[in-house]
Amino acid sequence: MPKPPSIAFQRIRAEVIRLVGLVPEGKFTTYGSIAVHMNVMARHVAFVMSRLTEEESERLPWHRVVGADARISPKMDAELARVQRERLEKEGMKVNERGFILDDEAHFHVVGVQRDIRWSEGGD
Does the model's pTM come out above 0.90? Predict the structure, then answer.
């Protein structure tokens, strides 16, 4: 039987989902931008994003989160990358043939200063 997620992971996951939901239409952000705001590593954000439930994937604008170089991940499943590209382009963003978003002004930085959060059971 798999070990249940830690309280810290549950809190990180909830905050990632909350922040992804704040990215406005026609804008994008990066795993790193979210991570800096949360005081975690970008790979933590990517891990959460890669494990969204089907319901979360339908509800959240996950397609607005890309790599540090404003690029759709080349490691992503090809079909999922195609969906991400289509959704970004539908919102007016220009994406080149290699998956780079060409609209620098569309980079949305999560509002607020870097948070000093303790994600463990000790609290905020």
Answer: no
